[in-house]
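Schema walk-through. Below, the input block comes first and the output block second. Nothing else is stored per chain. Lengths vary across the set, and this one has 330 residues.
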Amino acid sequence: MLKRRYKILLNYVIGPILFFILALTIYRKLTNQATLQQTKKLIEQAFSQQNKPYIIFLFILMGINWAIEARKWQMLVRTVQSVRYFTAVKAVLSGLSFSLFAPNGIGDYFGRIVYMKEGNRLRSIAVTTVGSISQILVTLVAGLAGLIYLNKTAWQGLPQAQGFTGFWVTAMTYMIAMTAVVVAFIYYRLSWLTTLVEKIPFVYKYKYLIESLETFHWKELTKILALSVIRFIVFIVQYLLMLHIFNVQINWFDAVCTTSVLFLVLAVLPTIPVADLGIRGETGLQLFGILSKNSGGIVFTAAGIWLLNIIIPAIAGSLFVLSIKIFRNR
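--- output ---
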């Protein structure tokens, strides 16, 4: 009961308040930087004929992104149940749909397991988590590398970067590095750790839920990690294209590193669906704002990526969810 009240408070009270505060902050920064006419001009230029190939390529990358994630999930759940690739695509997009209504990606797991056989649904949660760990590991390493580079080069001597340098960044660097090492150890020692955990008395009777983790060999885990790396590269390219479309002029390597740090911050921050766009916009402004004064372009880039990678695929996923309901009614 208490848990339910907490979720209601988080989703329907704290979430909207946080979104309103972030939206107001972003609005003030935009109005300080540009007039309504300048913002309108920025949007018109973004959707001009010369940017059409970039926009088309962004949609192609969106498809590649979720195609990779579907393949990754298909490979992971085969230790529990064999799943067709198209079913994996439907599961991943349905999970994305459900994640819009639950904090911290909880809905993602629910949306995927409905495509598993009844006896395998809870068992598939553990193997799905492996995919999340691999993506987090890539984000940690890339974000760490980006933070070190920016701190040593691009942020040096910039007054707007004062809050992002010195002791604070050094401490964060060591913390992220240690976290990455721990996550890498857990990831590649899953089988051994699972065997140890199963020996705990109160866990033993539920061992059937996690015993599938024992079957993962380091070669399989490396393949999953490789797919996560490719997916991360797709994210980076998408962000670079979107920055170009909205005329955010930053050195491409600085942009790559800043985007890596941005993804790291977003991965660490708790996710509240209704405030997600506001969080992405404000975080983008804080990081990219160090290297560019085009606040409008930075915010529109964050919004564009959110629409492209979350909302549009989630709409597609909702159609698959609807088909599940129709099938069951029949």
